Amino acid sequence: MSVRHRHRVLAGVAGLTLLLGVGMAPVARMTDAAYTDSEHGRATITAFRVPVPTITACTVSSNGAGVFQNVRLVWTSPYGASGVRLTLTQGATTAVVPAANIATTGPTGGLYTHTAVLNQNLLTSLIANLLGSTTTLTVTNLLAGTSWASAGTSRQLSIALLGLNAVCT
To answer: The pTM is what?
Structure first.
């Protein structure tokens, strides 16, 4: 075998070894987030959290015999009527109160005031078993144009059997 032929064979073996090494190297993975060392780069990350609404009142009205008639829930929010949601939860059942049942005023000082007066008929149409139960009333702010929502703020509406002794806490 000539020297020239040996050099070609060695070059071929070296090339094949290089190709095998590259082929066996681990594949680079996609990155969800990357950070730089603070010595070499700077960045500011700003997060936004949808503000939580503030419940200012939850009052129950009963008739002269002490039977539940309605509950009035009042809360403030930096968002107008289209940026709030009121849900009722009892056990595994959750219902959204229609926007038509929420009155909005303001803004005053940057806050809107929302009032929902939920009578017995509306509550029983949304939550089947109202009497002798506890229903959670939860208000949430919604960021327009996104699926972002704030944490909820809640009150408990408790009504004894026969509609007596209703309280909102």
So the answer is: 0.71
